[in-house]
């Protein structure tokens, strides 16, 4: 029986298939040069699945993804699907994957490659060398907790409400992910909440403190109010190593951190489930932060590096191939200093290229680094 890693590939819509094809060229490079082989199953998701099957994710595709060691995702959506009923919108395919695999931990690195320092809106000295890992709780809190809804009061006033609610086990499991990551980085965790005004924030802080006392060896923990954290992220972002926070604050803080890096086409992410108690296997889905970019889809113009860096996260976090992940990141850095760049990261002195040109430049860099 093959001992190859089982990889589910869901390219999706718009530029998804373009950046995925480019990334799989790099997977092929690793198969040829490093004997790193994958058994790849490809499936349809989002609008592509709706067009072919009438649903954004079939049960078979979900089962294939759950049987795989990891899922690599492209992007879903597009204006042609905007008027579909809610249950079959392309995004429901992604949400179903997250829900069925209970992917509660969203990892969003915000890294500034030296060659792209000038793409940030912040001063070079503020962002140069930046490397933050944001860990966002993804399946609880205000986007899911009940009661939530909208009602009309007796006097005719409409009111709408959501609930921010967390239990200790939900906080502990995301805290554990943050501590584990910090141990492989600089060992510093900042936990952000609003313990000054929210009960859920008080509990979050208590549980994080207790978890740190019980399981925080080798890691420092600092608590920060989420509003101050937003300010610190743009004032002095390099003070952060790992930042752990709930679903709502994580949504906002991870987008803030993302923009420190200057380009959507460069940002990867990972969503992880809990490790299985007996096998240790955890569900994991890797995807770029960007969407399907309908404005440039089909033109071969998309930057494939966010998808490639998602693949690199997969090697690091699902397959323990940290050396190979490092090699990809070095090759990306080297390629960014080459002559060619995609439009989203264009700068004076470079020549504009497309998806293929950019990935070929990375592959050339891999060849040179492996020599
Ligand atoms: P988007 O990320 O698709 O695009 C925003 C802008 O960034 C566009 O100008 C686009 O051309 C550019 N861009 C994005 N990725 C790029 C890349 N790799 N290279 C070069 N330029 C890139 O966001 P949007 O326009 O708000 O959404 C478009 C569609 O994508 C919508 O249907 C939306 O629902 C969907 N979407 C999907 C996901 C996902 O699949 N996870 C995430 C966000 C948006």
- What's the pLDDT, averaged over the residues? 96
Strand content: 15-25%
How would a crystallographer describe the biggest sheet?
Answer: 10 strands, mixed
| Content-based structural category | alpha/beta
Bound molecules: nicotinamide-adenine-dinucleotide
Question: Which terms would index this structure?
Answer:
371 residues, ten-stranded mixed sheet, Isopropylmalate Dehydrogenase, 41% helix, alpha/beta, 2 domains, globular, 19% strand, binds nicotinamide-adenine-dinucleotide, two-stranded antiparallel sheet, 14 strands
Describe the structure.
The protein has 371 residues and is an alpha/beta fold. It folds into two domains: 1-104 and 273-371, Isopropylmalate Dehydrogenase (3-Layer(aba) Sandwich); 110-262, Isopropylmalate Dehydrogenase (3-Layer(aba) Sandwich). 41% of the residues lie in helices and 19% in strands. It contains twelve helices and 14 strands. It has helices spanning 16-34, 47-53, 59-67, 90-100, 124-127, 168-183, 199-215, 226-235, 247-260, 305-317, 322-336, 355-370, and strands spanning 5-12, 38-43, 70-75, 105-111, 131-137, 149-152, 158-161, 188-193, 220-225, 242-245, 268-272, 284-288, 340-341, 351-352. A ten-stranded mixed sheet has the order 2-1-3-12-11-4-5-10-8-9, with helices on both faces. Strands 6-7 form a two-stranded antiparallel sheet. Helix 1 (16-34) packs across helix 10, helix 6 packs across helix 7 (199-215) and helix 10 (305-317) runs antiparallel to helix 11. The relative contact order is 0.15. The model has no long low-confidence stretch (mean pLDDT 96). Nicotinamide-adenine-dinucleotide binds at residues 15, 19, 75-78, 91, 94, 264-265, 287, 290-296, 302-303, 306, 342, 344.
